[in-house]
Amino acid sequence: MTEDRARRLRDTGFAPAPADPPDGPEVARPWRPEDGPAPTVWRWPPADRPALLVRAHGHWRYAVVGARHDYPDGRRAYQVTVDLTGRAETVARTYWWPHPALRVAHTGRAQPMTGPGSWPTREIPRPLRPQRRGTTAAAEPPDPH
After folding, report:
1. Phi, psi (rounded to 5 degrees) for 83
2. 92-127: per-residue pLDDT in tens?
3. pLDDT tens-digit series, residues 46-75
4. Among 76, 54, 72, which residue's Cα sits nearest to residue 64?
């Protein structure tokens, strides 16, 4: 594909995902049964996720961590959402840790969880039913007796 065609596709919003930069971290491919025992996957709640800085195309890019994969052989990979190009085109990637092109941006306060399930959500109280304005209850007539 020519550079001009790629630019036009990108400008229309139909561009393929950006290619991983050669100076970036090593991408971990998805686990397969022939790889041996499955990794333990740790997830963070959406409201309190840690983040990494990913080196891409000569810049450090902010990447939100969605999960950590701990392999039985001791390897570790982080699944992140990152904008590799700086054009607000986020992609999901899984990177091997540690790597010189990855740094910790910040940690989350919440503890990760593994296995099925979800985090408890705060109940938002339902608003009271609004009173209709301009209406009054009819007063009962006085008792004549």
Report:
1. -100, 100
2. 999 999 999 999 999 988 888 887 766 555 555 555
3. 888 999 999 998 899 999 999 999 999 999
4. 54
Which residues span the domain enclosing 110? 21-114
127 in a structural domain: no
**Which residues on neighbouring strands pair with residue 106, listed in sequence order?**
51
Answer yes or no: is 75 within a domain: yes
User: Which of 85, 42, 83, 88 is CA-nearest to residue 63?
Assistant: 83
How far is Cα 52 from Cα 75, in angstroms, rounded to an integer? 18
Q: Provide the number of structural domains found in the chain.
A: 1
